[in-house]
Amino acid sequence: MILVLIDHDRGELDPLSLRALTAARALGQDVEAVAIGSEAAGLAGIVGEYGAKVLHVAKHAMISDYTPMASGRALKDLVEKLKPAAVLAAGSPRGNEQLAHLAAFLDLPMAAECSEITLGSPHHVLRARWAGNLIESANVHAELLIATVLSFSVEPESINAPASTVAEFEPALEPQDSVVRILSRDSGESKGGVTLNDAKIIVSGGRGVGGADGFGNLEELAALLGGAVGCSRVVTSSGWRPHAEQVGQTGTKVAPDLYIAAGISGAMQHIAGMKNSKTIVVINTDPEAPILRYADYAIIGDLHQVIPALTSAIRQAKG
User: Domain tally for the chain?
Assistant: First the structure.
């Protein structure tokens, strides 16, 4: 049996978990799921639709929000009871963190960001390294495989199965398990109310935007398209935009239908976060910018002129 961690934010499913469920089904064994927090019981319908026969839900008074150490210990309790062949999760920051705690509690290795998984003795994985520019082939010498699935290496596929059976359990947590917890929240939503993970269209800006004030035009275009605003690491490092909007290896990895990169040169870590976008449009004054190698369409020009002109043309086309 394969056990898949379903990540959620107070009952709202992280769609990347559906990719992990799809990857788990490909391993040819029964699939069950686990989620931390009582709000997750409402996810039984969609979790079942993607192949999990059972949804185990960890309930405990200490688990009222995201607490990664408590998640790890709860997973340990369940794993020791169910004895799955593998535990998988989405290769998101939260998925990686929670399974890292599980691996530490069990004193086992963990393989993160896997694009391919083969169960065996030893298990075998392929992993993206160096911002996706290197594929690592590795053996995992452990009876239980603990691994996360590279976010966009598999497309989510529903099998229209019935809802999962919900099985609640109360893990044996310890006081120190809540040491790491959420103190405050930043929604990470753009002014249009769309997050990077949800957005079908992302308008991103880099150093070429010139400063915090320069993002006004990008916000206007993103709002017109019903999308979200993103940015490169240098932008957040400069304090122009919040980290929640950073696209890249150390930010959010995205794969929208349309990614517009304005004033972004194309550092390796940024490319790793957006190269799986279905269509990439680059706006840059430098015809030699590295990001142009990934562009489906390129506009060589000043973004401060191109973005307003593009916004105006779209507004006119919409009537």
Answer: 2
